[in-house]
Structures are given as C-alpha cells and as structure tokens.
Amino acid sequence: MFLLVVSLCACFDDKGNYDYHEVAEITIENVPEVIEVLGNSDHIIVNPKVVSSLEGEIGTGNTNFEFSYKIEKKSGGTIVLNQNWVNLNPAGTLNLDTLAAFSADTYIGWFAVTDKRSGIQTSATFDIRVSSPTYEGWMILCEEGENARVRMDMISVISAERIIPAYDLLAPLGLPESKGAKGIAFYPNRYYSPNDLIYVMTGEGAYKLDRETFKTDKSWEIGFVDFILPPEGEYVVRYETVNNASNAGALACLCVTDAGNAYAQVLDYGGAAFEYPINTSERGKAPEYRVAPYVGVSMARLGNGKTALFYDMDNKRFMGWKYGYVADAMQTLTPVADPENSLFSFKTGMELVYMESTRYSNGLVYSVLQDAGGKRCIYGINMSNNGFVQEAKYENLNAPDFDKATIFAFHSQFPYMFYAVGNKVYLHNLGTNTTYPMNNIALGENETVTMLKFNLYRQCSLSDLNNQSDEFMARQYELMVGSYNTAAPDNNGGKLGFYPVEGVNNSVTKRAEYSGFAKIKDVVYRERR
Fold it and tell me: Cis omega (within 30 of 0) on the bond before 333?
C-alpha cells in the first residue's frame, strides 16, 4: 500500500513538460509491382512519388529525407535468399535509373525513404525479372584497352522486332580475367541431349560456357573438361569440327594450341576427350613439327567430307587428317600427297598466311600463302568426300595492297575474296582477277578494320523448312565488318556492320550497324533450334 501511494504521488507531481510533435505519415506511390528488363542492356527505372502527411510531396532536394535502393535474389514469394543486398543507388537520389547488370533471375528490389529527423523509415518492394541477353544472337568476342582484356559483347535477338546490343556479358558470369581474344567455338551437339558446346578462346585459356546461362569459371577451362591430361604451358586457340552426315553431331572435334600442337577427339570411337598431340607420325609420340592455328574442313550441311586440313609451319607443307576405322590413324597427321597433273605441290615451301573453310563448290578450303619474296597466292582445296582435291590456284593477283593484308574472308556462294588494309575493304573476284574497293563500307580516318567474316550456321536443323525465314537464312552470307575507332574516348569504339553481297555487281550494301563494342576479334551467331 505504501508503494502504491508513492507511485500515485509521483504521477500527480508530473507537470507534463514534454515537447510533443506530430510524426509524419509517409506514403509511397508509383512503384511498379514488377519490372522486366534484359540483363546488361536495359535499365532498371523507378520514379516513385513520396508524400508526407505534413509536408506534401517530397522531392530530391528535400534534405530532411534520404533515399535508397537495393536488390537481392528472390526465391518464391517474398523470401530473400541470403540477405546479400546490393546497393543500386550509391548517389542516394529519389529516382532510379541504372543498368540491369545482373544475370538472368528474379530479384526483389527494396526502395526506402528515411526521415533523418526521426530515423523512421518507410519502404516499398518490387520484383525485378532479369532475362538473358545470351539466349540468341551474335556473340562478339573483343579485346578491351591497352591490356587487350577479353570481353564478350552480344547483339541479342530478343524477337524479330527487338535486336539490341549488350556489353561485357561474361565478367559477372565467371570468365577469368584474360588477355588476348582468339576466337569463339560453337559446336551444335545432339548425340545425347541438346548440349551445344560454346568455347571462348583467349591467350590465357579456353573456357567452356554454360549453354543457357553462359556461366563459366577456371574449372571449365578446356584442358580440365575435354582432355585426358591437360596440356601444360599451351592454350587452345582454334577449335573445329568435322561435320557428320546426320544432324546429330560431328564425326570429330579438332583443335590447335598456341604451341602449334593439334589434337583430335573422335566421337564415334569412344572419344570422350582429346588425347596426345596428333602432329606426329605415330600415336602418342612426341610432336614432330608445329601446325598453324587453322583447321580446314568442308562446311557443307549435312557433312559430306571426312577429312581435315592442317599446315606444317616448320616444313611448309599441308598435312591431312582422315576419319576412318583405324583408331591409331585418327590420332596422327599425314603429309598430303601430290596427285598426278597437279596444280601445285602440297609441299609448298611457303608461309601460310590464312586459311578458311567455306561451302563454295560443296566444301572448298582457301589458303593464302606467301613465298620468301613476299609474293602471295591462293590455293583452293576441295574437302568433300574423302580426298584433298586441288581445285584452284590463283597467282599474280590484281589486288592492291594484298601483300599487306592480314584480315580476309571468302564467300561461300560466289568466288569472292574480301580483304582489308587499314580502313579500306576490297572485294577481289577470283574468277575475273579484278578487285573492287568497297566504297559503301565507309570508315573514318581514325577507324581500322579488325575483322571480316561470314557466319555460316552450324545447326543443320536451321532451315526454311523449320520455320526459318529466307531473310534469316540469308544472313549467313552477309559480310560482317568489325572496325574500331582508335580516337574513341573510352574502350568502346568498336562497330559491327552487316553487308549483303551482290553476286552480279561485285558490290555490297549496308543492312545494319551496331556500335559500343570493344575491339572486335570474332563473331559467331548463337543458334537456337
């Protein structure tokens, strides 16, 4: 009773000396429930309306409030996976406009408004659905900056109406930091499941990409996933397949390393992996010579050839690989023998400058060779069936600056060779020995050509019989021109132009052009069935 009386007295003594003030109620409007974006291409944009019951609408300039946005992966309902929130808005602005630099997934976005006077926070959440720009389109392998950092950009084909560039896709997906872009390998494989193979080849490793997500890491280096024993001190820089007579997959996979060693993976003979170098006369023996980083095959669809062409750089001769029924023979290379009444000797005595596989004449491989005096010629070797047929020899070419060119592309429908010197592109008609400057490919004085290529589709099921338009199928015969502006203020001076080739007028016309890339080294279309 005594304590109760004291308590009551204390209450009576309370004079009510408090500084009461009304706490504002904050409401957030105009925040969408779901934002759908394309990863590394679209921007996440939110323009909320924030209203205080005391002050009205709150703008960015109101210093009494601070704003924040963060994002985390979502797993069903509103459950957040790991509470690994990423700050989307370091500037702390009211409105959000930031690149969706996230891999394909569903995320939860959190927008918060904090009254700095009271510390009270009001928030709103929204879903962010990031789709993949890697599903289909042109994969563009680039070198960035003075250190030639490897990066992969892409022209993503979202639909026939929406084709947009996306940049530096593999950096957040695990590609190890690498220098020196070498090429992209794409092999459509349907033997066991729809398990297409995609490799990114660099000067410091060749990495397999997940066919759906493009994720990769050091453990996916080709030496660990496709070799019995990883080759030491050498990296795969060229990867090619010998087409099968069916659309299920290839007869064999062949590759060449920067050390000049070649390897064969023969799929029909339990070829689960590459074995020892095949640039030798006896299976398993130490390499006897170095081969150039090219592999010539017939590009006919379906496959009509069971051979592959290599070039011995040390002895300056063509070497052959042939599919057969003797396993040991498919793990070696053999000098290609000269036929009777030959156009040229397969033991050329010249340096190989360039080699390209085409569909011309049902599987012609072109080789650009240079003699000791710097004079160049072109050999055409037909790879159809089981032989190495000498089909063409082009000498004394009427081609200005041809001896200076390092970038080439051969057409698969017309006897055309394209080559580039600096910012100039030329078309040489092999049939008439006439060269035409491609003035429609207009590049500035600070631009230089970094790549010429025709992207032949590899997926045999891609045809107009499978709901593919004639326009789509014709794209593989368009000349792709990669160029780079050396005066660009950043590392994104690369452009990629697409030029349909006129087979009658010896000319090209520009269909489309995309920009914002690094220095383009290779382009391959990511095909879908």
Answer: no
Distance CA 69, CA 113 (A): 9
The answer to whether 528 and 462 have CB atoms below 8 angstroms apart is no
Residue 473 to residue 289: CA distance in whole angstroms: 40
10-14, 49-53, 153-157, 399-403: least confident range: 10-14
**Integer Cα distance of 400 and 422 in angstroms:** 13
- The values of phi and psi at residue 140, to 5°, are -120, 110
Longest Cα–Cα distance of the chain, Å, equals 128
Residue 257 half-sphere exposure toward CB, CA atoms < 13 A: 23
Q: How far is the C-alpha of 38 from the C-alpha of 498, rounded, in Å?
A: 23
Residue listed under structure tokens 């690498």: 178
pLDDT (tens digit, 9 = 90+) per residue, 323-362?
A: 988 989 999 999 999 999 999 999 999 999 999 999 999 9
Alpha helices by DSSP H, 273-396? none
Count Cα atoms within 13 angstroms, Cβ side, for 268. Answer: 17
| DSSP strand pairing (479-485 vs 447-453) | antiparallel
* DSSP tag of 148: T
Cβ neighbours for 236, distance < 8 A, ≥ 6 positions apart: 199, 201, 206, 222, 223, 255, 256, 257
Phi/psi at 525 (nearest 5 deg)? -80, 130
Q: Give strand pairing partners of 386.
A: none
Average pLDDT (406-428) is 98
Using DSSP's 3-state secondary structure scheme, residue 479 falls into strand
Q: What does the pLDDT look like over 464-506, one tens digit per residue?
A: 555 678 898 999 999 999 999 999 999 999 999 999 999 989 9
Residue 265, class by beta-carbon neighbours within 10 Å (0-12 exposed, 13-18 middle, 19+ buried)?
buried
Q: Tens of pLDDT along 299-332?
A: 988 888 899 999 999 999 999 999 988 989 999 9
Q: Read off the tokens for 165.
A: 């560039």
Structure tokens at 163: 């084709």
